[in-house]
2-phospho-L-lactate transferase (Auraticoccus cholistanensis), 664 residues
Amino acid sequence: MQIVVLAGGVGGSRFVRGVLAAYPQARVTVVGNTADDITMHGLRICPDLDTMTYALAGAIDPDRGWGLADEGWRVMEELRAHQAEPTWFNLGDRDIATHLLRTQMLAAGHPLSEVTRVLARRWLGADSRVELLPMTDDRVETHVRVADPHSPSGERVVHFQEFWVRLHAEPPVLGVAQVGIERATPAEGVLAALAAADLVLLAPSNPVVSIGPVLGVPGVREAVRSAPAPVVGFSGILSGRPVLGMADKLLPAVGVEVDAAAVGLHYGARSAGGVLDRWVVDSADAASLARLRGSGLAALAHPLLMTTPELTAEFIRAGVAGGPDGDRALAS
Amino acid sequence: MQIVVLAGGVGGSRFVRGVLAAYPQARVTVVGNTADDITMHGLRICPDLDTMTYALAGAIDPDRGWGLADEGWRVMEELRAHQAEPTWFNLGDRDIATHLLRTQMLAAGHPLSEVTRVLARRWLGADSRVELLPMTDDRVETHVRVADPHSPSGERVVHFQEFWVRLHAEPPVLGVAQVGIERATPAEGVLAALAAADLVLLAPSNPVVSIGPVLGVPGVREAVRSAPAPVVGFSGILSGRPVLGMADKLLPAVGVEVDAAAVGLHYGARSAGGVLDRWVVDSADAASLARLRGSGLAALAHPLLMTTPELTAEFIRAGVAGGPDGDRALAS
């Protein structure tokens, strides 16, 4: 069984661990968001790809939820002593080795997908069931337009990382743009994986800055739409709030209500020009499923908390199998 | 009083600490060797400049003699886990912050001299008496041609760092080249400092791979030759052996005997086309001074061990003042 998962970082990696637990024989291709990527201190940093790799390797710091466990901070302390900006983005010592390797390989002309493969081989081993692909080898960066009373224009555009890590997603969001996305092409393997998949899953990652950019790479949305496999999406909005992250700050800026059903409608049914066959929401949002009537989306409500890989696997299997309302079973 | 010192790394920095102790009112411009510089893991590393900066800041590791005290090795451990070559060159975590900053500034278009100034300001403060200049802003690298029985040609060319750190200076040396030196120009400030100096000193650094490259940058040798100040050199060869480093392996490859007087003759007297007015050797080499007769060099024998800055200061003052044999006092 071949499964393709479109995913962001922290939530996406928990979801993929659930997918692996749900389908112990399956091979899983993860198409990861790279629009969070950023260059700092001359290092090319891919937060979502690294979070995915570290998490699947069991090497992620369980308390912080990002970065490596057993991490050191000597380089960062020293950069701070140099007053080398940005000092608001923490880079662990072990993590920096990843970025050094990536930056050097990119400078030598290797595409990000090849770099990602090398890093994944080290962390996951050569016989891993997971293949991690960046959505694109091209540079795409999410920039957020925020209100800024100190700016003459009353607004300012910042990199997503600055919005999230430095500004704690506090300033009102006026707009979101994925810079460079219109010229990006899907990384080698992405379209082929979608065409060959037995099942396509959208992780409950941020619809605006994680899943949004992946689908936004020209050709990816079309490949999802035309994939022979069923496409099932899972809501990261539970009871009107994101489980993780700051989607509640970003969804309104793209005209989407912070509501599980609204996000499902935002993705849309493949039968009506969208990318999903079924949308799975949390049990707490069962009532909102009524809003999907007429959308063409099959839908299911189920507890969606990703507390453990086993609980995550359970809701993934349930979501894929379909509900008692008779929507077709999408995979066995 | 303005003093210019041409210097390498470990020995050079001990010597400069002696100069500062000997002349507490002087301003000292150090022209540092950059031909040891190397790019590893995408980081531009300037071992001699950094050793000088760290040592003058009192931040150098006293046991290793290089790198920062209170250093960590997490990045390096991780690079080794990635099998990211070269793994034979140790980079400390704190040290890596220096290299990140330098690499980034160079990539942004700043010349090495500006980068060096920024780093020195952090480590030595804005009011330091020392100005550290790289010999050149251009890329110059010492390559060593060594015997290699496993190579079809019987030889191999390696970067100086590989020769010294990885091969422990063990293979027979067939030749030494400073790649790029013929196209290099002195860094901003080097020629002006030599022209304005009250005293020019050659540290007892390696004549082949430290002082050699500094003098080899087109224009520097001529500026030393025509400097209005006296030029005094100090031998790093004591009793036929280098106090530090591997000059004994390299001198024969450039046709110079491993002997204090022979090195003095290699530098030569300014009155006879060389760069020195006086050559100072260790007391143990007093007998060899006879070999300097007719060379035009004034000479002096004095204990030259750089055990403490104070002892170093003593021999520097003695060397500069001149000997009881009546050679002219070069500075007060």
About this structure: Confidence is low (pLDDT under 50) at residues 328-332 of chain B.
